[in-house]
Amino acid sequence: MFSRISSSFYRTAAWRLALRSTIAFAAISALVFFVMYSLVARTIRERTDSWLIGESETLKEVALTTPGDAVYGRIVGEVAEMATQEVAFNSHDNDASNTVFFYQDGEGGIPPLWVGPSGKAPFIASLRQLKVPERSAVFMTVPGWRLPFRVVADAVGPGRGRIYLGLQDTAARIMLTRLLWGFFLAWIFMVAFGYVIAVLSMRRTLKRVDAITGAAASIGTADLSSRVTSTEKPNDEIARLARTFNRMLDRISASVNQLQTLTDSVAHDMKSPLTSVRGRLEAALSTDDVNLSRELVAGAVESLDHLSEIVTTSLDVAEAEAGALRLRREPSDLADLIHRVAELYAPAFHERRQSLTTIAAKPVYALVDQRFIVRVLSNLLENELRYAGDGARIMVILGEMEEKAQIRVRDDGPGFPAELLAHVFQRFAKGDKSEGHGLGLAFVRAVALAHGGRAWVRNLDTPRGAEIVIEFPTFNAKETPISPQNDTLGRLSEPLAPEPRNDVIVTSS
Amino acid sequence: MRLLVVEDDHTIRDFLTRALGEAGFLVDACAKGAQAEHLALEGIHDAMVIDLTLPDMDGLDLIHRLRAQGVAAPVLILSARRSVDERVLGLDRGGDDYLTKPFAVAEVLARLRALLRRSTPNQPETTRLRVGDLELDLIRREAHRGGTELQLTQQEFALLEYLCRNAGRVVTRSMVLDHVWKMRFDTSTNIVDVHIHRLRNKVDRDSERPLIRTMRGVGYVLKD
Prior knowledge:
The structure holds two protein chains of two kinds.
Chain A: H1 13-65, H2 72-88, E1 99-104, E2 113-115, H3 121-130, E3 138-140, E4 149-155, E5 162-168, H4 170-217, H5 237-286, H6 290-321, E6 325-328, E7 330-333, H7 334-351, E8 355-359, E9 365-368, H8 370-387, E10 393-401, E11 404-411, H9 418-421, H10 440-450, E12 454-460, E13 465-473, E14 487-490
Helix pairs in contact in A: 1-2, 1-4, 4-5, 5-6, 6-10, 7-8, 8-10
Chain B: E1 2-6, H1 10-22, E2 26-30, H2 33-40, E3 47-51, H3 59-68, E4 75-79, H4 84-92, E5 97-100, H5 105-119, E6 128-131, E7 134-137, E8 142-145, E9 148-150, H6 154-165, E10 171-172, H7 173-180, H8 191-203, E11 212-215, E12 219-222
Parallel strand pairs in B: 1-2, 1-3, 3-4, 4-5
Antiparallel strand pairs in B: 6-7, 7-8, 8-9, 10-12, 11-12
């Protein structure tokens, strides 16, 4: 169901994300255009107004200086007509689309004077109704005319009435309409173009997310090899997601591989003893010799104990590696623990003509779960018993430096086989001559890590031998008082990789 | 002594019943928590063996309920759960001791005896142990076999003392490690065997009647 990335445009996040940003962009750009348009419109109106006011002043001068006789009407009328024609033709070539009117009301004995379009009645009615203030332009609508007029009024003088000058600036109006359309189209284009760009770039980005989805979808139970490619640039959130995803896959595939080896080893290590148990019990059932039968049953019980130990240790190692080992940590003297375990093992070493020396004179305290440390030490000594060889000299050295306690178990035996050295700490890793179950050192390392420490092995050159070192943080009672009952969950300080990388130092060539 | 065994796995229940019966206990066994509660409330049991995973209730809840109703008999918990927390919890909730599966029957017996000893005090502190012609002076830390003093190390004396205290009963390797070295871990190695071997060299070498015997697959027993 995931393998095919949906091609439906409306089911992508890209168009939704782009839509939101585009709506925001459209609103803001519309506002900007509106402000620009308003500014232009205002500038044009101001220009018209200043012309109207200037012209009305000129006409007022003419009206004042012309004697109020019979030719008054003609003189003022002609001047007004010249003025109106000036505007009518000034914006475009011979385009008389602008309409200008001049009106002097008849107060003060002079007959009313009208220069402008025929049919003056609605104009005069509107002027009367509007009560135009002096020396400032206002809009006036005239019945029968689509666009409003800008009108200024001026008092000519005492007893001479008022003059009105009006202008319907069609040219400016046309220009403004064009500007409005221009702005509108530009706005539509910008929004549409922006939206397309946004969708495309987001699609491009989200395609990389789809690539991750694709990689995840192609992971089957058997095949974990699929990875997200091109994770390098740009180094952004998605690249980080891809890298994290790849790392997660690496870890999963590592654990699966580990599980694979684990199950193989379990199959081998547990099936053989199970077979032997079954065989012995069957033989015990079929024999009439009571002593032989007891012997066989006893052997079977011993095999079962061995199996039981494998199970317990496997679980402990698995828990420790998963960071789920429950530790009951208390301040403990590692020197004391070493002495106790060494005491337990001393006769066994003696029996093999091996010598066991402990160098742990002064107490070194660490916050550890004693039961696990005892088992770790026991595992290490068992290891020496098995592999250091007859007559080997084994030393257990406890040291403290820089708030770290180090337990070194060193021998002068043959050392680790080269092919084993790199993965001695792996579960079920064991040498050809091993009699153990291959869990001992895995357990050692897991416990060390669970205690916030580490473990490593190396082969020694001069004198020849092998050394296993485990290291714990030391405990300082003054700094961190912790009640011994305090249960702490043992967390690994680092994730366990299937291949121990830094822990192995090869010193032999 | 009457015991109550609560265990839902019938194989384990059967062999426990048989082994405890052979060891001289009267045993009531049941598989379910409710039934066990009913039986335990009669107050006739000296100790109980309770498995933590029961079909109808959690073993820990059962113990808790019994304790709340005044049942004081000591409880030995059996569990396949293995984390320390579970163990501690088991003891906090009214359990007296625990054993994780798989366990040796000898160990069940030993722990039950220890529990019963604990619940019936007034035992005089022994200062001398005697098994056949072997004699241990616990105060002077000396051992004699047939009148001859044995040259034992402290460890060897502690091991011999433990065997003598359990004379006639089988002790497992884990029990020896736990009691003599205070280390609780299972080991399939022969580390305890080495100690037993050395001890036997000193105790039984000059005698015609060896006291320390190895029960292959189980452990050791010291008996006359």
